[in-house]
TrEMBL record:
Pfam families the UniProt entry points to: FMN_dh
Keywords attached to this entry: Oxidoreductase, Signal
Matching PANTHER family: FMN HYDROXY ACID DEHYDROGENASE DOMAIN-CONTAINING PROTEIN, S -2-HYDROXY-ACID OXIDASE-RELATED
Protein name as annotated: S-2-hydroxy-acid oxidase
Origin species: Aspergillus lucknowensis
Signal peptide: 1-16
Cofactor annotation: FMN
Domain FMN hydroxy acid dehydrogenase: 41-381
PROSITE patterns: FMN_HYDROXY_ACID_DH_1, FMN_HYDROXY_ACID_DH_2
Family (UniProt): Belongs to the FMN-dependent alpha-hydroxy acid dehydrogenase family.
């Protein structure tokens, strides 16, 4: 018995050090492996979000692909973001009429209605994959009725991206920003976002210092001067007075900080570790959501909580929603899909929509709004038993 207990204690370590597959082996190499380097396989042959990663790695130059793909330090957090979902199991229900599930996928985010509870997360430099850059995200998001949050560090300007929205003003977008102690620059960014009819500001707070991005540093050495950025609750109170837009905090990683966000009347938070790009060994969004659910589940009723990081399947979205997350951000898969242009981004959205519907159906869930923690199972340390 003692040896068995010792084995269980070492299991997480063993799994964390085993060889890592960037995407699962679902037969793509056997079917599309003869695709010439520097070309893309036909879009119709892309059957899941991980396929876009495989295709982009063969199509983009090494530095461009690396910019999208890299994680911090030894990239344990990047890997854990992907693998955490596999450590949690569903509890499927049967004998349930789920035939109407495709018409019951919609949600609201800060009061705005969208077709599904996932959105395109802010990611920088979309122009590395396609010349139309972030315009492709805005157009595809509008066509599919989902939210897009452009990054401040986009290839295109905020104005160029917003110009891709329909003239009738029907499309809702939020604007992601990095802010610092330069109040003049901050006020200018807020004013630009307001003028472009952004409905909310997404303030990224999980990048207080430079990221230890060793993979990326091989192509673009970091600055010799380290930058440390101001972000505290006093600063948040100040910037709230500088704009009429609600300010969402992106990068919350503990239940304590969710509680503080509620106390400081933050309208919404995003559970995120910056895609594993800033601090290695930071928890995955699923682990953060689980911590909030176990320690203070009422927080999900007190504030809108979103999450992003490592999502590749409809089942991943469902596991976050089951814990109480309201909407789920997806980043890298859309960046890779953008190699195909707007058609690729649209295809990625449609694939994830379809997976979300059929996975919910197989889970025995007739309405996405009725999902709760009874549909998933875990134990106290995050490992399924």
């Amino acid at each position: 018995m003692r040896s068995w207990a010792a084995f269980l204690a070492l299991l997480p370590v063993a799994l964390a050090t085993r060889p890592f597959l960037n995407e699962p082996d679902t037969g793509i190499e056997e079917v599309l492996g003869d695709t010439p380097e520097g070309t893309l396989p036909d879009l119709e042959n892309i059957v899941g979000l991980p396929d876009f990663d495989w295709a982009a790695r063969r199509y983009l130059n090494a530095s461009s692909y690396t910019y999208y793909r890299l994680g911090a330090a030894g990239e344990w957090s990047y890997r854990n973001n992907l693998e955490a979902y596999g450590r949690f199991r569903f509890r499927p229900r049967t004998m349930v009429d789920i035939r109407g599930i495709e018409s019951r996928l919609s949600t609201s985010i800060l009061g705005y209605n969208f077709s599904v509870p996932f959105y395109i997360s802010p990611c920088a430099r979309a122009g590395l994959a396609h010349p139309d850059a972030e315009v492709n995200f805005m157009k595809a998001a509008n066509e599919e009725g989902i939210l897009y949050i452009p990054s401040l560090y986009a290839t295109l300007s905020m104005e160029e991206i917003a110009a891709a929205k329909p003239e009738d003003g029907s499309q809702v977008h939020f604007q992601q920003l990095y802010l610092d102690s330069n109040d003049t620059a901050t006020q200018e960014l807020f004013s630009r976002a307001e003028k472009l009819d952004a409905k909310a500001i997404v303030f990224t707070i999980d990048s207080a210092a430079d990221g230890n991005r060793q993979r990326g540093n091989r192509y673009s050495p970091p600055s010799e001067e380290t930058e440390y950025v101001l972000s505290d609750w006093e600063y948040y109170a100040k910037i709230r007075e500088m704009t009429k837009l609600p300010i969402i905090l992106k990068g919350i990683q503990t239940v304590e900080d969710v509680r503080l966000a509620v106390q400081h009347e933050v309208p919404a938070v995003i559970l995120s570790n910056h895609g594993g790009r800033q601090l290695d060994s930071a928890p995955s969004p699923l682990e953060i959501a689980l911590e909030v659910y176990e320690e203070d589940p009422e927080l999900f009723e007190q504030i809108e909580i979103y999450a992003d990081g490592g999502v590749r399947y409809g089942a991943d979205v469902l596991k976050l929603l089951a814990l109480g997350v309201r909407a789920v951000g997806v980043g890298r898969p859309f960046m890779f899909a953008n190699a195909y242009g707007v058609e690729g981004v649209r295809h990625a959205i449609q694939l994830l929509k379809h997976e979300l519907a059929i996975d919910a159906g197989n889970l025995g869930l007739p309405d996405l709004k009725k999902i709760d923690a009874s549909y998933v199972k875990w134990n106290s340390n995050g490992w399924y038993t």
